[in-house]
Amino acid sequence: MAAPTSAPPWALVVPLKLATDAKSRLAGHLSPGRRLELALAMLGDTIEAAAAATGVDHLVVVTADAAMAAAATAAAGGLATDLVDEPDPPGLNAAVRAGIRAARAGRPAHAVGVLLGDLPALRPAELSAALALAARHRLALVPDAGGTGTTLLTALAGVAVAPAFGPGSARRHAAGGHVVVAVPARSGLVRDVDVPADIAAVLALGVGHRTARVLRGYTG
Ligand SMILES: Nc1nc2c(ncn2[C@@H]2O[C@H](COP(=O)(O)OP(=O)(O)OP(=O)(O)O)[C@@H](O)[C@H]2O)c(=O)[nH]1
Ligand SMILES: C=C(OP(=O)(O)O)C(=O)O
């Protein structure tokens, strides 16, 4: 069903794993220290871009990691940011549900978006454009570059949402009623970093300054 046309304000939920566990698929490629630095840098660049997107006036960061929480708050640059502790039992979808609950408790009239925290090439205008398209639908999603994952999941105010992140999540979210929002193939919004080839892909798009610093001299 199509949604109302006026642009809603947005609350964005960003789930963040413990930095020491993050980016495990890069373990054979980067040292533990470099992976930790990269995870922190990528989340900072993601949050900075997200906080500058049109209509976004509230961030909810869900994490058990104090360093991730501090990096996120710093990168948000003064935008209202709530920190929510990892739920018990923990896990990505539990964290997302907790974040959505917190976002809606504080701002029930906001639309809510769930954004993954590893999108270092994201630019504010790309997220602004995707949120404007998503606002036309009660439930929407942006798939990752491979088409199988989800980088942004959205729901308008008051619309029930059942997050099903994890491998193959785009298909599950679509089956749950989320409309696929088309974004340009070269958008940083679709380029999350999971495996070594993703690093080259985001560097080709251009990454934020934190990630650029960590990856300076990176040759693959
Ligand atoms: N709060 C919370 N966030 C999570 C959890 N698992 C993943 N995330 C976050 O969800 C996003 C996507 O994470 P994944 O791709 O599953 O994990 P990753 O650490 O990025 O990479 P891998 O370790 O290689 O799977 C990132 O922002 C993660 O920090 C979790 O259990 N709790
Ligand atoms: C968690 C997800 O992504 P990834 O593991 O690819 O980062 C997902 O797409 O639901």
TrEMBL record:
Catalysed reactions, as listed in the record: phosphoenolpyruvate + GTP + H(+) = enolpyruvoyl-2-diphospho-5'-guanosine + diphosphate
- Provide the residue positions that the database annotates as binding phosphoenolpyruvate: T150, G166, S169
Biological process (GO) annotations? F420-0 metabolic process
Enzyme Commission numbers on file:
2.7.7.105
**Pathway linked to the protein:** Cofactor biosynthesis; coenzyme F420 biosynthesis
Keyword Nucleotide-binding applies: yes
List, alphabetically, the InterPro entries matched. Answer: CofC, Nucleotide-diphossugar_trans
Tell me where on the tree of life, at the top rank, the source sits.
Answer: Bacteria
Enzyme class (EC, first level): transferase
PANTHER family reported for this sequence: 2-PHOSPHO-L-LACTATE GUANYLYLTRANSFERASE
HAMAP family hit by this protein: CofC
By what name is this protein known?
A: Phosphoenolpyruvate guanylyltransferase
Q: Which organism is it from?
A: Pengzhenrongella sicca
Lineage, broadest ranks: Bacteria, Bacillati, Actinomycetota, Actinomycetes, Micrococcales
